[in-house]
Amino acid sequence: MEYDDAELSDLYWQLDHETNIECTDIDGKTMTIIHQQFGNLTVLAKIERFVKDIARTKQVAFDMRDSVSRSNIVLLPTLERYFCFMASMLNVFDEQYVYSPRVDVFFHACKQIGILPGIYPFSRNATEVDPETGKRYGEVFNVLIATIRQLVSRSKFKRKLKNHEHSVRRRIAKVLVWEQRLFGSKSRYVIMPLTLTYKLEYRDEVTPELVQEHLRHFFNNRRGNSLLSGVEEYVWRMEEADYVGVHVHLLVAYDGTVNGDFIRSKQLCDYLETTVMDGMGSVSAGNLYKGSKWQGVYDRCGGKINSYDTGLREQLRAALRYMAKASQLLKRKSSNKTKTFGMSQPPEHSGKGRKRKTCTEVERLAA
After folding, report:
1. Which string of DSSP letters, residue by residue, matches 267-336?
2. Other beta carbons less than 10 A from residue 130's beta carbon
3. In the predicted model, is pLDDT for residue 74 greater than 60?
4. Integer CA distances (angstroms), 191 to 6, 71, 124, in order
5. Residue 36, by phi and psi: left (phi above 0), alpha (psi -120 to 50) or beta?
6. Contact at 8 Å (CB) between 48 and 102?
7. From CA 108, how far away is CA 4, in angstroms rounded?
8. What band does 361 get if pLDDT is binned at 50, 70 and 90?
9. Strands, E, within the chain: which ranges?
10. Region 108-131: what's the mean pLDDT?
């Protein structure tokens, strides 16, 4: 599962958006807070492209020619263009994250040659001499490139990359099967993309285990509750970020016979906030902010969707693909017992009624 550069940038931008932009209530007003680290995660896409470009060529970035002034440099533009981003690429490192294979190999190579992410003062001037090593920064950059090239050529990295890509493909296939079976069992749903976050005063005491308990509470309460009985299927993904803390994306397929998805979404948000999260958090629904400039691909899929609405169903599939891919690109280190992704199991088409299309290739990949 290879991402093209545009898709990769968009994925990291969406992650950056949901991690560092927060909608919260302040004195009864809904406020949008853009945190200081907004923009950092998009740098990870640049690291991914840098490592891919290193593997595609045998060049270095600079041909550092000896001279008294030590200023003569021949630029090799394929890799040289990344040099000016070294400081920002080093500064995004966070030891609490598990990164994708290419980003991981970049940070591993940096440490191997003595460049400490988040600490190393990398100059933008390739001819300037590093006081620690006595080498020009252009030479240090060349050594980094050679180290990365050596690491990505090893069978260990290739195996890790292959396993990662297989895992992404398999998860995407599973969510697409979920969507396929969803409209195979019923012809119409109201899709509600919900985001559950926790208030600032509670974030220190909120753990992934507590969030899972809240999710279990919500799913178990569907029995015997008139509001929740309309929640027929769901997909969820848990994330953790420095500013926003632990939060959950919960995509709900609601009974399609109901009218007024705005009102029902608001009722569901209120129920989650008061009964499930016990006043500790706030819940937003993409249905409540249709047309907003802050809506990402996840929020845009909200609304009533019929099985024959190919455009709307593709928006839903785009949201599901994003949830599956994002959960594989950037993950917080956590206990093995902590699940960060889950979904319901829609019933297979009973065979009654109008025959709907199937996708055996997707089902094969998900198996």
Report:
1. HHHHHIIIIISTTSEEEEEGGGGTT-TT--TTGGG-EEEETT-HHHHHHHHHHHHHHHHHHHHEEE---T
2. 17
3. no
4. 27, 61, 48
5. alpha
6. yes
7. 24
8. very low
9. 21-26, 29-34, 62-64, 73-75, 97-99, 188-198, 231-241, 245-255, 281-285, 303-306, 330-332, 341-343
10. 87
Task: Tell me how far the alpha carbon of residue 141 is from its chain's centroid.
Answer: 29
pLDDT over 90 at 153, yes or no: yes
Q: What is the DSSP annotation of 85-117? A: GHHHHHHT--TTEEEPHHHHHHHHHHHHTT--T
The model's pTM is 0.76
In the chain, what are the domain boundaries? 40-153, 187-366
User: Around Cβ 242, how many Cβ atoms within 10 Å?
Assistant: 13
Contact 35, 243 (CB under 8 A): yes
The CA angle 208-212-218, to the nearest 5 degrees, is 145
pLDDT digits (tens, 9 = 90+) for 9-61: 666 666 666 665 665 555 656 666 655 565 567 788 889 899 999 998 888 78
Of 169, 271, 286, the closest CA to residue 226 belongs to 271
Residue 148 makes CB contacts below 8 A (sequence gap 6+) with 51, 54, 105, 106, 109
What type of residue sits at position 107? Answer: F
Give pairs for 260-265: CB < 8 Å, separation 24+: 261/190, 261/192, 261/287, 261/302, 261/303, 261/304, 262/287, 262/288, 264/190, 264/192, 264/227, 264/230, 265/192, 265/194, 265/302
The pLDDT of residue 301 is above 60: yes
Report whether 189 contacts 254 (CB < 8 A).
yes
Overall residue count recorded for the chain in this entry: 367
| Mean pLDDT of the 254-276 span | 90
